[in-house]
Amino acid sequence: MTTRTETTPVIPLPATAATTLTGLGALAVAASAAMSWTWTSDFPGDLTYYGSPVGLQWLAVAAGVLTLALLLATLGTPGLRWAAPTRSNNAVLYAATGALAVAAYSVTSISTELGGLANLEPGGWVLAGGGLLGVLGALGLPLDRRTHVPLRILDKRLFLLLPAAPVGWIAAHAIPGDKPVAPVMTALSGALAIAAGAVLLLQLGHLANSQLRLGKVDRPLPAPRELPSWVEVLLIVAAFGVGSYAITFGIDTDYGELFIGYLLLIAFMIAALAGSGLLGRLRALTLKYRPVTTGAAFAAAASFPFQTGEQYASVATNILIFATVALGLNIVVGLAGLLDLGYVAFLGVGAYAAALVSGSPASPIHVQLPFWAAVIVGAAVSMVFGVVIGAPTLRLRGDYLAIVTLGFGEIFRITMQNLNGTTGPNVTNGSNGIPRIPELNILGFDFSQTHALGGIQIGRFGNYYLLMLLVTALVVLVFARVGNSRIGRAWIAIREDETAAEAMGINGFRLKLLAFALGACLAGVAGTVQAHVTYTVTPDQYTFADALPPNSAFLLAAVILGGMGTISGPLAGATLLFLIPKKLEFLSDYQLLVFGAALIVLMRVRPEGLIPNRRRQLEFHEADEPAPPAADDDTTALTKAGA
Amino acid sequence: MHDLPQQLANGLILGALYGLVAIGYTMVYGIVQLINFAHGEIVMVGGFGALTAYLALPGGTTLWLALPLMLIAGILVSTLTAVAAERFAYRPLRNAPRLAPLITAIGLSIFLQQLVFSFYPDAKKARVFPKIPGDPFSLGSVTVQRSDLFLIIAAPLCMLALGWFVTRTRSGRAMQATSQDPDTAKLMGIDTDRIIVMAFAIGAAFAAVAAVAYGLRSGQVDFRMGFILGLKAFTAAVLGGIGNIYGAMLGGLALGLAEALATGYIQHLPGMHLFGGGAWKDVWAFVLLILVLLVRPQGLLGERVADRA
């Protein structure tokens, strides 16, 4: 697709004025952190001190400094040029917008929580002013823009909601409050108002888009400077160090406001760094040194329990379980294209199998297998279930698999509940589950005890975290090796077009069954660890949709949000989907609602996920490609003949 | 085995309910080859629409007067929901890879459930739905609840109406043509978009009838009722041969019968005494689905099951 681009400012300002404004704004945002933002310590984090930044204020420092650095780098300041290889001012704009977002969020949350703008101290005003100034200035810089973005108008019928909202409101208030239907009407008029607001916002967004005309513009990356390879390796290690620090900061945030500010900052900064070309550079480096990259990533992950306390190690262990299972699901969904809606049941099968042979006093099977044997049992039982479910369904269209797995997830839970001695034979202790699963003890290493490793105390969850990391490594290894093998390529071929793949001699059924069983088996392995981490397995841990991950819907969402068919995608998606509900407890009532809506919107807007697989991305955006212009008749005919 | 007639009657009534919901799956599938996972939630939304109409009526209204109004409200709500879902969620994805609309359907299903859960007053627990008052009827050894009368009358009427619509009207024949070959149908001047909307709307209307029947039977509606009902109805649709509207009804009846018989008699089989009763009925329905897919994946009345894409 050819998009015509130009490099012009949105707001016509003299170049020096724009640069100065942006710089001043960024400085002000950063400097405000040294001032008091509010007068009372009631706001979480206590932002009342001069000279000692805390919480949100550190985010402001980071945003301001990064904006300034990118601005200087695009200006070509010696010593900073590496930070913006493309010299694109869009990066500065994204960073400045990130600073404004952090500022605006801080100021609004201070004034809403404490009741009014009057609660802002000078630091708060400097922050808000600096944020605004920075964005205004950045809009005056010469930006990469499209020459023409047509204004999209929504379906005209949607605009009927705009007059309908006030009518609904009046109608709801006309009903006397003691009628049983009155609360229903109030809720309905509220929903109408929300829908009308959403339509209005969406249309305004389209309007802004057609005016700003900012879009993803790919500037070519200039050839990198020749560096000795040890420097390049060090750069990768440094990048992973920074990344590990950023993720640890996110997991350790101890109140919701800080976490939202953190998410805002991270989102905009990633956009800014991608625009500046720095991420492209890093990507090229990681591709060049794959083993180093993998090693650095695992070292960064393994360093986590050494950086924080036991409380966050427990969160991280659960993230890791969730992420590992999501990665296993990605083999099934992302590589082979099979929609598994009951995947969590395989985790449950593994966990139950491990719990039954763990020597728990509640288990009717009074054996205590060593852990390695329990892992094999869990994996094998899960795989058997995978084959039993998969064999009849995988011969048919994919949709059947989706609903059969959905059913399997539900039936698994019901069966585990029924095998309680009264409605069925006593195997699983019914809804009470199997409690008191003993702690692991591998080669004399007792997981329940605190050990000193390299002078740092690692507690129970730290131990399990490291064990789980091994399982994650196993799944990553399987994913990477199988994904790039003959089998993996066959899976991708089946995913793209099963009929064509079979015509090429691929045995579709057998390979799909292999993917399905392998996925089930990996989930089973994760389940065996999970059983020991949580002490107890109950049927209700393994549901289709629930407020807490892992459950089948969240697993699928982690894969889709992150990016189907990639390794880093589901890991990132799972981390986000675990942390967001955990940190934003005030959202908990509406979390699933937002989640459902997000799935629908995501499928329309960015079906390829946050970290897309290149091939997958092309496939999803086939329809966006415009028809080739008539002048290219010859080449079109050629490609058609070739295809 | 003395209660066999009673079990058969229970099974048929339950099966009629499944059949009504299964129509929605089968019609949409027959035309766009999409399993509309959210159909169970369309049922649920229809139930709450009918409940709202009941709440809006003055206190002493007899059910005979209220029932038609509830039915109209339920049909209105579920049809509007289904048509809006088609227009804004499914239609933009019609040419997308097959995974995309399925995931959208999951999202829609969760969204609708949570919408009712969060915003319908007191919907966090099951809400009471009116029942038809009076003693059950007795016909020999078979007793039938009065509330089930609605279903016994409505289900055959709906089926007759649908059969007439599909075979005798212009739109119905256009629908058949579209399901056989959408591209050719379009060339023949059929507005296939309109036909697709119609399929969603008819399925949703039947869903609302089923929701009212469900509410009358069980005396309550809750935000989760669509999940298992939808799963069962899909099983029924597959059992009858997905894409075939008579098959959906037949599959529903067969599933209802199988479920009633399994609930009633499986514990009398040797070695199975612990696996009977209501706690296991969903499990047996699922086992039946697996068996059907294994033995006769095209279903009782289905012909083609081959991949058409």
Kindly describe this structure.
The complex is a heterodimer of chains A (643) and B (309). Chain A has 643 residues and is mainly alpha-helical. Chain A folds into three domains: 5-149 and 254-274, no CATH class; 156-212; 308-623, ABC transporter involved in vitamin B12 uptake, BtuC. Helices cover 64% and strands 3% of the residues of chain A. In chain A, the strands form three sheets. In chain A, strands 1-2 form a two-stranded antiparallel sheet. Chain A has a two-stranded antiparallel sheet with strand order 3-4. Chain A is globular and about 80 Å long. Chain A starts with a strand and ends with a helix. Chain B is mostly helical. In chain B, a hairpin with a 2-residue loop joins strand 2 and strand 3 (142-144). In chain B, helix 3 packs across helix 8, helix 5 packs antiparallel against helix 8 (192-218) and helix 9 crosses helix 10 (245-265). Chain B has one domain: ABC transporter involved in vitamin B12 uptake, BtuC, CATH 1.10.3470. In chain B, the strands form two sheets. Chain B has a two-stranded antiparallel ribbon. In chain B, strands 2-3 form a two-stranded antiparallel sheet. The interface between A and B is large, with 63 and 60 residues.
List the helices and strands and how they pair.
The complex is a heterodimer of chains A (643) and B (309).
Chain A (H helix, E strand, L loop, with lengths): L4 E4 L6 H18 L23 H20 L13 H26 L7 H18 L3 E4 L14 H14 L7 H31 L16 H24 L3 H21 L1 H11 L1 H13 L1 H4 L2 H26 L7 H14 L14 H23 L4 H21 L22 E2 L2 E2 L4 E3 L2 E3 L1 H24 L2 H11 L1 H6 L4 H27 L17 H11 L5 H16 L7 H15 L8 H7 L12 H10 L1
Antiparallel strand pairs in A: 1-2, 3-4, 5-6
Helix pairs in contact in A: 1-2, 1-3, 1-4, 2-3, 2-8, 3-4, 3-8, 5-6, 7-10, 12-16, 12-19, 12-20, 12-21, 13-14, 13-15, 13-19, 14-19, 16-19, 17-19, 20-21
Chain B lengths: L3 H29 L6 H18 L6 H28 L8 H21 L7 E2 L8 E3 L2 E3 L2 H22 L1 H11 L1 H6 L4 H27 L1 E2 L3 H16 L4 H21 L15 H15 L14
Antiparallel strand pairs in B: 1-4, 2-3
Helix pairs in contact in B: 1-5, 1-8, 1-9, 1-10, 2-3, 2-4, 2-8, 2-9, 3-8, 5-6, 5-8, 6-8, 9-10, 9-11, 10-11
